[in-house]
Amino acid sequence: RKIEITKQLNSRAYDANSTRPVVGKERISIDKAKKLFKRLIPSASEEELVFFSKLVLDKFAKPNENLLGLYLNGKVGILTDSNEVSEQVLRHEIFHKIFNEYLTESERRGLIDALGGSEGRSIIEVEEELADLFMVFKDGGNIWLSNFFKRLLNKIKRWFGLIDQHEYTINSVFQNILEGRYGKHLVPFPRE
């Protein structure tokens, strides 16, 4: 079944009170956060990354929400405390920006399908799950236990036409994000 993915951009927020993965203690300086943002999204401008105090970020929060970061109107906002930010929350919000502004419809659909589709849940819920996975994904890592033999088997299947050439896996998209590959193919905000 064809998955309809909305092209309207909504706000995405990382709420520390939700049932999401616990954010680790990985704190980085604002300077390192800017470098990470630029490395993952090379074509993004400095104005697309905004640092907020708790007081300001709380103005974006819904009742009983404890925001640590958000993606809103093409910008990534992140809570800063003592000139440091959470690297994991920054990665989570960067994923939202890339998912909504840089990935093609086909790539988004491939990611959603790779996560089991959207049956019984909204696209936003699936996107949040993907952002949570990217938040903890390590360079060269694997979300599931894919290995050299699995990749080799997939290449053989593609060669024989048994797999679509444009099959997108979560691991390969995440690795491409870490290598800054999507920043070179910007779909301008807002999406058309």
What share of residues are in beta strands? 5-15%
Walk across the major sheet and give the strand order. Answer: 1-4-5-3
Strand and helix order? EEHEHEEEHHHHH
Shape: globular
Helices and strands: which structural class? alpha+beta
**Helix percentage:** 25-40%
Low-confidence stretches: 1-10, 164-168, 188-192
**How many helices in DSSP terms?**
7
- Biggest sheet character: 4 strands, mixed
Total DSSP E strands: 6
Please, what is the average pLDDT?
A: 76
Termini separation: 23 Å
Rounded to the nearest angstrom, the radius of gyration is: 17 Å
Task: Explain this structure.
The chain is an alpha+beta fold and 192 residues long. Helices cover 39% and strands 13% of the residues. It has seven helices and six strands; from the N terminus they run ββαβαβββααααα. It has helices spanning 30-40, 54-57, 87-101, 105-114, 123-136, 148-159, 170-178; strands at 12-15, 27-29, 49-52, 67-72, 75-79, 84-86. The strands form two sheets. A four-stranded mixed sheet has the order 1-4-5-3. The chain has a two-stranded antiparallel sheet with strand order 2-6. The longest helix has 15 residues, at 87-101. The two termini are 23 Å apart.
